[in-house]
Fold:
Amino acid sequence: KITKAHDIRIEEFLGYPELRIPMFQREYVWGTEEIEEFWSDLTEEGIEFLGSFILKDEEYNHNSRSGYLEIVDGQQRTISMLLLLKTISRRLLTLAKSRNKVYEQNAEKQADEINGLISKRDRNDLTKVLSYKITLPNEKDNKVFCDILDGNYNENKKEYKNFYAAQEKLESLFDSYLKNKGNSSDKIASLVGLKNHILDIKIIEVLVPTDEDAYMIFETVNDRGADLGAAELLKNHLFSRIKDDQKKIQDEWQRIKKTLSNINRRSIDLTGFLRYYWISKYEHLTKRALFKGI
Structure:
């Protein structure tokens, strides 16, 4: 069941008070290739549309604009979007240290607009970030993500290699983007133009009202596209059947993945592991057919 589907600007999408990643979602898996493609899409001249984002609005009051929405489909793009916008903000603040006061004030103003859009501020001290608009389901993942947004890149690099690889790729892309942009004022103008361009791009926002609708749409969208492995689709299926103690399921799922990672020297992912287990017990199935077979 879909309650509403319409187009909105990215600035409106990020204007929601809070966006949460549900527990059944996979972790952040984008690498340098996906980030480069995402960057290319966003910076392409004339681009006006970035695809659809499916959100569950059961806990959101549209009249008072309070509560939160859950991202059913669009998680990877949303996380990458925050990393990219925060990088623009940091670059603007660095350029604001140039000695031209007019450009300095404009850069600081534009950086502050980005930070206000992607974070929650202390009402008594607007420079203090209380939290970011997007919340990841795993507390440790969320902390590392927030640290990277804050510019702290020192911990858990091996465990969270995708986060760090994405951020390092973005830094490299921005270096290339600004290389021939002239002096500090020209670079500030280019970054402001890029920021305005990105926030003006439209998405299709698809709203669903309940967990059941979210699980069903998530499975349908991802199974047909073969973007997710059978393991993640199975995880979604388990969450759709078990309503109580989902935190325990999430913790156990992470424990299994970590155990497999620690003993696995051949880099077999969880989907591959499930497939070999299924073949040994039941019948031969390809990776693509595994989820339906289970």
In short: The beta strands are 4-9, 19-20, 49-56, 60-61, 66-67, 69-73, 119-122, 125-132, 134-135, 202-208. The mean pLDDT is 83.
